[in-house]
Amino acid sequence: MTILARLKTETRAAHDRIEAAMDLDRRIASRDGYRDLLIRFYGFHKAWEENAAHKAPDRSFFERRRKTRLLVQDLEALGLKSEDIIRLPQCPPLIPLPAPEAVLGSMYVVEGSTLGGAIIARDVENRLGLNAETGCAYFRSYGRDIAAMWRSFGAVLLEASSPEVDDLIVESAQKTFDVMHDWLCETP
After folding, report:
1. Count: domains in the chain
2. How do the pLDDT tens digits run along the chain, 188 residues long?
3. 74: Cβ–Cβ under 8 A, 6 or more apart, which residues?
4. Residue 156 φ/ψ, nearest 5 degrees
5. DSSP labels for 62-105?
6. Geometric angle at alpha carbon 49, from 92 and 86, rounded to 5°
7. How far apart are CA 188 and CA 84, in angstroms?
8. Which CATH number covers residue 14?
9. In angstroms, what CA-CA distances link 159 with 1, 24, 57, 62?
């Protein structure tokens, strides 16, 4: 079983748990609810990116996948000022990422979330009339390149995979799902 297949299998329950708890229909039913959802995503990504950047296996590979700037762009489009965004709460200390392989396991969750974001973006556009320029850049982060970005991530993950590190990769993904669930699904 490849590491990608193993991750999909072993994180399925965590994925289903967060998807059920997110209550996206309610959270994107209004601009205020949607803005609050983006604030939670901002708090997660800001903390996660700062934590993961130092251990990422390939700095440029990681940098192209950062989402915080897109969330800032969306929040500003929805009326927040830069000084307000800087003061937004961040996710509490994240899981330890002791090695580049742990970062890749954690990235599996974040990159998978990006795939789901394309579906959410369509709902946001239909319900709220927002697009990448008016408040939905985060969920449209890779645009038409989403499949290519996922494939390139998968290739890096497969290359890093080995019997010595695969447990660490899976454990990191599972813990990231837990942290993301607790942060995003907490009632602000």
Report:
1. 1
2. 999 999 999 999 999 999 999 889 999 999 999 999 999 999 999 999 999 998 998 889 999 999 999 999 999 999 999 999 999 999 887 788 999 999 999 999 999 999 889 999 999 999 999 999 999 999 999 999 999 999 999 999 999 999 999 999 999 999 999 999 999 987 55
3. 38, 135, 136, 137, 138
4. -65, -40
5. HHTT--HHHHHHHHHHTT--HHHHHTS----S-----SHHHHHH
6. 65
7. 16
8. 1.20.910.10
9. 14, 34, 11, 15
H or E segment and range at residue 53 = helix 31-53
Domain that holds residue 31: 3-185
- In three-state form (DSSP H/G/I as H, E/B as E, the rest C), the secondary structure along 105-160 is HHHHHHHHHHHHHHHHHHHHHHHHCCCCCCCCCCCCCCHHHHHHHHHHHHHHHHHH
Residue with tokens 């599996």, as numbered in its chain: 108
Tokens 């494939």 -> residue: 151
Q: How many residues does the chain have?
A: 188
Structure tokens at 99: 């090695």
Which amino acid, 152? S
Model confidence, pTM: 0.94
The whole-angstrom separation of Cα 52 and Cα 101 is 11
Q: Roughly what angle, to the nearest 10 degrees, separates helices 100-128 and 166-185? A: 40
